[in-house]
Amino acid sequence: MRLYLTEGNPHCLKVVAAVELTGTRCELQFVGVEERVVPFLSHSKLPCLQLDSGNYLFSTNAICQYLFTLRGKEPSDLTNQWLEWEATELQTALSGALYTAVVQGKKEEAAGTLQKKWTYIDQSLTRRSFPYLAADAITVADIVLWGALYPLLSDSAFLLGDLKALRGWFERVCAVAACRKAVESILKGKGLQGLKPYLQKQPAPSQRAETPTSNEPEGGESADRVLTEEEIRAAADSWSKGLSGWPKPKLIQHPVLPQPNEKNVLITSALPYVNNVPHLGNIIGCVLSADVFARFCRLRNWSTLFVCGTDEYGTATETKALEEGLSPQQICDKYHAVHAQIYQWFGISFDHFGRTTTQRQREISQDIFRRLLERDFLLQDTVEQLRCESCQKFLADRFVEGFCPFCNYEEARGDQCDKCGKLINATELKNPQCKICKGTPVVKSSKHLFLDLPKLESRLVKWLEDSMVSGNWTPNARFIARSWIRDGLKPRCITRDLKWGIPVPLEEFKDKVFYVWFDAPIGYLSITANYTDQWERWWKNPEQVQLYNFMAKDNVPFHSVVFPCSLLGAEDNYTLVNHLIATEYLNYEDGKFSKSRGVGVFGDMAKETGIPADIWRFYLLFIRPEGQDSSFSWSDLLLKNNSELLNNLGNFINRAGMFVCKFFEGRVPEMELHDDDKRLLAQATWELRQYLQLLEKVRIRDALKCILNISRHGNQYIQANEPWKRIKGTDADRKRAGTVTGVAVNVACLLSVMLQPYMPSVSASIQEQLLAPAQCNVLADEFVCILPGGHKIGTVSPLFQKLETDEVESWRKRFGGQQPEEGSADQSKTEAKPTAEAKAAAPVAEDAGKGADPQRAKQLAEEVTKQGEVVRELKAQKAEKAVIGAEVTKLLELKKQLVLAEGKTAEAPAQKGKKKK
Amino acid sequence: MSDKVMQELLSLEKCLGLKRTNKFSTQGDKKVPILQANNGPSLMGLTAIAAHLVQEAQQKQLLGRTAEEKAIMQQWLEYRVTQIDGHRGKDETRTILKDLNHYLEDKVYLAGNNFTLADILVYYGLHPIMTELAVQEKEKYVNVSRWFDHIQNYPGIRQHLPPVVMMKNRLYTSGH
User: Fold this and answer.
1) Bridge-partner residues for A434, per DSSP?
2) With b meaning 16 or more CB within 10 Å and e meaning fewer, what string describes A408-440?
3) Are residues A775 and A248 in contact, defined by beta-carbon separation less than 8 angstroms?
4) Among A42, A320, A519, B104, fewest CB within 10 Å belongs to which?
5) pLDDT value at position A200?
6) In terms of pLDDT, which residue wins out, A843 or A774?
7) Which residues of A touch B52 (CB under 8 A)?
8) What are phi and psi of A309, to 5 degrees?
9) How many Å lie between the alpha carbon of A167 and the closest alpha carbon of chain B?
């Protein structure tokens, strides 16, 4: 027989491995990618096997199985199942992922799409506890799956994280000589890139439409999941154990300290900058997400410390102080209190909410600085800076204003232009002006210190790879960290010519302070030090402590690259981040939150709506920008409140409690479990386990879905068993009504525990209504009967209130967020900002007319139209977000030029650009 | 959709002469069938379950008699669940019919001279496509039509599906 192959074709791997492994004698012939070998197929299908009879096998799995059959290894149910799964489920996902990873070069994105498949294989391996997929020894299933997975799994971008079983299996099969040979002959040592010529010739796999923002949770497999008899039996067994053997909730005694031989979890939330009131996006991005996780860890009886605080040093504070006529310290005191109040209202359970303007902060920062200096990780260089001679100071960042060198906007700040958004070096400003005395500054050089990141790079890379393999980094965090390293690290300035900061402890730098980014993350340490003298047991204890950092994605570089470099360079056995959890952005009604425009809901306003904090928490967590951007929308808030909370969760819990009160005088009836009841227990147990797994991986939004699934099952269960009718029937009927009510009220009690991380006050009121024993507040992977027959419950009342449309509509009006203007509909979010900011910038340049140029305008108008089409086309093709973003930026730039060329001011370019067409 | 695959498995059980003791269900968006075994783990996927049922009915010959026949049989089972079930739009349907027509030119059954499980499952899978075909198209894919008609008249195979009418005499002489 003769096997036709093509180089760099991933489908050839398994076939060659099967030939080698079975020792089949067969002729190998390499042909071109598009060669049609199988006479009856219209498209080229390779590899294929020509049998001696003249027949062809064109299915790679059939070829592999055939080679095994020739050796007397017949298929089994299990190998058949794997081969079918590979052909129907895995290959569809893989072809998309390979295309994305190799042809489009987006490995991270590709890796994300395969997570579910990895998990499926891993779980199957774990469940059967064979070293191989279908038996104790290697079978055709292993060769087929290995061949499919090899190109991706052998690439370092595809990490398996904690999927130990899959990783072990993959390494085992890779070590087989036949497989090594197959890799050599097909990939020729080129790895994933070796597939590129082949993949480029394949048609692009059709990918499922991806919307840029989505508030709907993904997937819905749990709905028709099949329960095995075994699962059902096990659930009923667990239930009958009751609370007797249940672990006791750990009493929290401050200061919480790590315990040997226990799981110790240290959680930080990015420090909010003190001079702003946080908006909902800030709240969900770090503090609220971290809070859910901290509460979850406590429910699991892990030693948990959750710290946060305000970041107070830096030029923005000084500027704000000037504006409000207060001292920087007064500004900090004022806003620190504002922050603390907001978080308290939202029920954020910090163990300590501190600040960075403390003595501890100074000590620890200076200590790390000295250690870096001693170890020669700091460089000195001179920087050209603006200095105001009359004020006797260097004008850092925001203390200077002038004309933007790019767009001529005349109130550009020293670090950035508000109009065109470009980053500026203060020395490039035209007509610079000191913000304090309005005098003209001069350029002077000033000495500064730099952290030598290139020197620390090799240590950083090694640590980063380890941390990403063993820890739980969100895909965006991995991606951002890797791209920083890929783009090359440069020394970073760590000092500033300012007063409001931590002084640099060196004589020749005595007028300088640390740049905020250097000392702000040290805040985590100093805030802990202000909480307990034994802070080093948390922060210099990487062996015992698992550190989780929560933040929005813009903070990733500092937490994954810059700060770890400081700590690595200081060489003091610091605890470095193990799990970096970064969210995407939350938009407001499909635009951006903007303080200056009064658009969006800010922390202090949420309270004024009268909507309870727990409802805010629920909705923000339900739309948590996990994996992709999402939007806050008033009408969606109403919908989720009324459908998920009121009609689903609240309805179930309330009914269960009401039945106990109305039909059984407030005492939980005796229960005798039937199949239906056991099935519900098994369903709830399965969801509970999903919930635990998801939360351990900090998939907060997905885990919330499990809670809602349980109450959905519960509602169906009540509906199907109709206890309100049965209570009026025969003795047997009444007994049945009792069992159903008892089971339902216990499910409600389980829900109260699972709900606690998300909605702490609602959880507490459920437990109060049910008079649930405090001992139930521990999460484990079993669902036991918490409220036994005879248990007396309290007064039951509704948990949630309906939100009305006009109520919500009035808030929507009040908090801005009007519908995007017609015309900006097909332009991305980036548009919203410059447009609006331009409006906010009231003064209109008097000489705006000067730039008018009809010829140029005409040309630009055409370009705008053309570019608009490019953008629309990309969107229609569902192109990559970054690609679209780049084209949109071009479009905006063109429109801006057009407006100028038309001799108008840059006001509202979106509208004008539209009319021009 | 789920009804369809369940129906298909129930029909297969019947034509294999099995008593109705197996429990089937489906899973996920794609409605992948599951066989819930009384003892032992459950089995997932149409072809894996079908092969299992054939074994249970002790009709192993339906899985192929020789290594080669077995491999070809398996290849068409896979073709059924990947190509026929996965087809999108008219063009892909046409390619499937064209290729099958070419393949069946010199064959009685999919695996050659013997009737196998592949004939049953490909027949079930093609049924909705064949029902939709115009008379002219049925003539165009004459080998597929001949094979299809043969299988639907095979004892016990058609079960739940309505027969697709095939003309015995050619209407269009110009052919391809």
Assistant:
1) A400
2) bbbebbbeebbbbeeebebbebeebbbbbeeee
3) yes
4) A42
5) 80
6) A774
7) 77, 80
8) 175, 180
9) 24
Cα–Cα distance, A699 to A627 (Å, whole number): 10
Residue B36, classed as helix, strand or coil, is strand
A51 close contact with B: CB closer than 8 A? yes
Please, are residues B100 and B79 in contact by the beta-carbon 8 Å criterion? no
Which tokens in the block code for residue A115? 């997570």
The phi-psi region of residue A19 (left if phi > 0; otherwise alpha if psi is between -120 and 50; otherwise beta) is alpha
The length of chain B is 176
Nearest chain B alpha carbon to A72: B67
A41 touches chain B (CB under 8 A): yes
Give A290: exposed, middle or buried? Use CB within 10 Å, 0-12, 13-18, 19+: buried
Q: Is A731 on the interface with B (CB under 8 A)?
A: no
Task: Count other Cβ atoms within 10 Å, centred on residue B100.
Answer: 23
Q: Which range is least confidently modeled, A191-205, A366-380, A577-591?
A: A191-205
A129 contacts on B by Cβ (under 8 Å): none
Calculate the alpha carbon distances from B144 to A56, A453, B122 in Å.
19, 69, 11
Residue linked to tokens 């020394």:
A491
- Residue with structure tokens 């997400």? A289
Task: Answer for the pair A510, A503: CB distance below 8 angstroms, yes or no.
Answer: yes
Say whether pLDDT at A409 is over 90.
no
The CA distance from A536 to A547, in Å, is: 13
CB A349 within 8 A of CB A299: no
For the whole model, what pTM was predicted? 0.60
pLDDT > 90? residue A116? no
Partners of A305 in the β-ladder: A266
Q: How many helices (H) and strands (E) does chain A have?
A: 36, 20
Give tens-digit pLDDT for B87-108: 777 888 899 999 999 999 999 9
| Mean pLDDT value across residues A28-57 | 90
Taking the C-alpha atoms of residue A47 and residue A38, their distance in angstroms, rounded to an integer, is 10
Q: Which two tokens stand for residue A124?
A: 């199957």
Q: How many angstroms from the chain centroid is the CA of residue A274?
A: 24
On whether the CB atoms of residues A451 and A377 are closer than 8 A, the answer is: yes
Tokens of A89: 């489920």
Point out the least confidently predicted range of A165-169, A298-302, A351-355, A358-362.
A165-169
Left (φ > 0), alpha (ψ -120 to 50) or beta: where does B167 sit? beta
Indicate if ipTM > 0.90: yes
Q: Is A69 an interface residue toward B (CB < 8 Å)? A: yes
- pLDDT per position as a tens digit, A134-168: 988 999 999 999 999 999 888 877 777 778 889 88
Give the nearest partner residue to B102 out of A40, A81, A228, using CB atoms.
A40
Is A59 in contact with B98 (Cβ distance < 8 A)? no
Give how far B30 is from chain A: nearest CA, Å: 10
Compute the distance between CA of residue B149 and CA of residue B141 in angstroms, rounded to an integer: 12
> Is the CB of B82 less than 8 angstroms away from the CB of A69?
no
The residues, any chain, with a CB within 8 Å of residue A614's CB and separated by 6 or more, are A347, A759, A760, A761, A762
Distance in angstroms (rounded) separating the CA atoms of residues A296 and A327: 40
Could you tell me which of B29, B10, B26 has the C-alpha nearest to residue B18? Answer: B10
Tokens 């068409």 correspond to: B76
Check the CA dihedral A242-A244-A246-A251 and report its sign. Answer: positive
Question: Cβ distance A160 to A63 under 8 Å?
Answer: no
Which parts of A277-324 fold into alpha helices (H)? 280-282, 289-299, 315-324
Q: Do B25 and A224 touch (CB under 8 A)?
A: yes
